[in-house]
Amino acid sequence: MATIQKILVSQPQPATERNPYSELQKQGLELHFRQLIHVEGLTAKEFRQQRINPLDYTAVLFNSRLGIDHFFRLCEEMRLTVPDSMHYYCISETVANYLIKYIQYRKRKVFFGNNRFEDLLPAMHRRPQEKYMMVMSDVHNDETIRMFASHNIAVQPAVMYRTVASEWPKEQPFDFDMIVLFTPAGVHSLRKNFPDFQQGDKILACFGANTVQAAEAEGWQVAIKAPQPGLPSITAAIQQYLKDNSPA
What we know:
The protein has two domains: 6-36 and 166-244, Rossmann fold (3-Layer(aba) Sandwich), CATH 3.40.50.10090; 40-163, Rossmann fold. The chain is built from nine helices and eleven strands. The chain has helices at residues 22-26, 44-48, 65-77, 93-98, 121-125, 143-150, 184-193, 209-217, 234-244, and strands at 6-9, 30-33, 37-41, 59-62, 87-90, 110-112, 132-137, 155-165, 178-181, 203-207, 224-226. Helix 3 (65-77) links the parallel strand 4 (59-62) and strand 5. The N and C termini lie close together (12 Å).
């Protein structure tokens, strides 16, 4: 195995020294944090092409704070006044609390789960007349929509932002021994930035089955995969790989 010294982690720089990557850094590894993708909001014109009017719905579902920002941004751009009667269903309490930035938070209009939309089903069943719209990215999994449908709850997906490739600075060399990827969009960004990319002896680490699938579809070998039994995080998987492949 080639010596691993320089690692690209396609995520933002951690805010504190105590982070999941600190143990790797203590081993003398050189970690570089840079996102390969970024999010852009749809314009009002682009959103209107979906023929969705947010005011036709009595409730909005959010899976992230980013979705909240783009929902209220687009409503403002389209000069839509969100009624006080609107209900909000959020995947977690953290996401729900973010609504304070835009609305007067009242418990009877905001509901949240414990990082699962399934947790919201009882509240939704108590309101059979509710009409639901879910704010989404262009890159999304329709499994949640299908889950609601299996419980006879119709949810209209509404794409309000998209994930796009970030341009790699031309003056910065791409000389990493290991590349850590977290989304299929990150895989596609790597290919877009480097159309002639040859893996060679570079080690690829991928988090999530969809990311692994996207990388392998490019013809690349993924040496490190997470999560897997006993290795719930990408850092744990990297640590195990380094241990298994360390010089005798």
